[in-house]
Structure formats: structure tokens, C-alpha cells
Recover the amino acids of this structure.
């Protein structure tokens, strides 16, 4: 794995977790919005890191070319899905969002869940930033060694 690959992994993490944080922030902001359905971010690995995927990659690469498989790594944002959890309904017949029976569906956002997810996302963003920072330091040290 090259230094550029490592920077790309860190950059993909920064980008993905920033988008993920936006989803959690929107959920928290819409706690009291009637008919709002909580969104759940979907993340994908850029490589198939399952046992079957790794075994297939080793079989294809090692036994044919005699080299270990190259894994690019990283994460990508796959969009959002709506939380299927049913939310409560309250009776407000004059409300503009009320159904034909006068009920308004309240948001299904659970604040503690999204706050905890936002905290995990923040930690993942920090880890991605550390990858970029450490890679930058390694590159600078390599450049210093090359000068001497």
C-alpha cells in the first residue's frame, strides 16, 4: 500500500463521516417535526473484506501471479434509508399535517440514539483525520531522510 492509498483511505473516511454527521444533525434538528421519519446513514467498504472476498482475492492473485492481493481500503457513503420504526400519533384535528381522522404522526427520532450515533461518527472522523495526519508526518520524515 502506498502513501497515496493511505491518504485516500483517510480522505474517504473524512468525506463519508462528514456526510454521516449531517444525517444525524438533521435527525436531531427534526425531533419535533410532525411526520418526519428518522434517516439512517448507510456506509459501504470500498473493498469486499468478507472472508469469502479475501479468500477469492488471495486465490486469484497469489496462485496466479505469486503476489499478495492489493486492497485499496476506505469507506463510502451509500445514502440514507428511512427508519421503519412506527411513531406515535397524537390527536390534533386542526393541524395542517393531520390525516383524515385528525391524527398527526410525531417524529420517530430518538434523541439519545442519534446523539450517541453522532458521537461515534465524531470519533470515526477523528480517526480518519489521524490517518491523514500520520501519513503526512511519515511523508515529511521520508523527504527529510531522502535529503540527507
Amino acid at each position: 500500500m502506498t502513501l497515496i492509498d493511505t491518504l485516500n483511505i483517510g480522505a474517504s473516511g473524512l468525506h463519508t463521516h462528514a456526510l454521516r454527521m449531517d444525517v444525524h444533525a438533521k435527525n436531531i434538528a427534526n425531533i419535533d417535526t410532525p411526520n418526519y421519519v428518522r434517516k439512517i446513514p448507510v456506509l459501504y467498504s470500498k473493498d469486499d473484506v468478507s472472508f469469502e472476498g479475501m479468500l477469492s482475492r488471495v486465490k486469484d492473485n497469489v496462485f496466479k501471479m505469486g503476489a499478495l492481493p492489493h486492497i485499496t481500503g476506505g469507506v463510502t457513503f451509500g445514502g440514507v434509508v428511512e427508519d421503519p420504526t412506527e411513531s406515535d400519533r397524537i390527536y390534533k384535528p386542526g393541524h395542517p399535517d393531520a390525516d383524515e381522522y385528525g391524527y398527526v404522526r410525531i417524529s420517530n427520532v430518538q434523541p439519545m440514539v442519534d446523539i450517541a450515533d453522532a458521537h461515534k461518527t465524531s470519533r470515526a472522523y477523528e480517526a480518519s483525520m489521524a490517518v491523514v495526519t500520520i501519513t503526512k508526518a511519515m511523508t515529511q520524515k521520508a523527504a527529510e531522510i531522502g535529503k540527507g
